Amino acid sequence: xxxxxxxxxxxxxxxxxxxxxxxxxxxxxxxxxxxxxxxxxxxxxxxxxxxxxxxxxxxxxxxxxxxxxxxxxxxxxxxxxxxxxxxxxxxxxxxxxxxxxxxxxxxxxxxxxxxxxxxxxxxxxxxxxxxxxxxxxxxxxxxxxxxxxxxxxxxxxxxxxxxxxxxxxxxxxxxxxxxxxxxxx
Length: 185
Hints:
Strand content: 25-35%
Strand order of the largest sheet: 3-2-1-4-8-5
Number of helices: 5
Low-confidence stretches: none
Distance between the termini: 14 Å
Order of helices and strands: EHEEHHHEHEEEE
Largest sheet: 6 strands, mixed
Mean pLDDT: 85
Number of strands: 8
Radius of gyration: 16 Å
């Protein structure tokens, strides 16, 4: 049994998955609960993290908060939160995954990134660690789940060159990435 690392996307758009929207059920909250249980069964130790602009370790209380609206609220100043909560730095998560070759990694995210994160050197920061993971003989499983959504989607690019937000989505997919040895994925 090797360690299991769980990464929760802490960007503000993820909050929409945990906000109740009766009569629709949120699969997201139930799945997070099941994933945390499975992670603890799978590994010798389970380490939890939240990521946005940076990666932050989580204690058990903070893990429970990721299944609640307040798990996505930022305690810092409004300006600092604005910068941190609207970024999904998957590249940092993928880079961290290459550090412990024996671990299994579970990442929950909406896979939404700004278009500026998908060009040039920023794109390479995202794809290079994935290539390294595959070169190590690891497997990557991706599960997409449609879920109720009651929130805001940020940084949607426009044809004019700027970006907008969108708050009328009632359903939206989220994704679970499992990375590690094929038998664990």
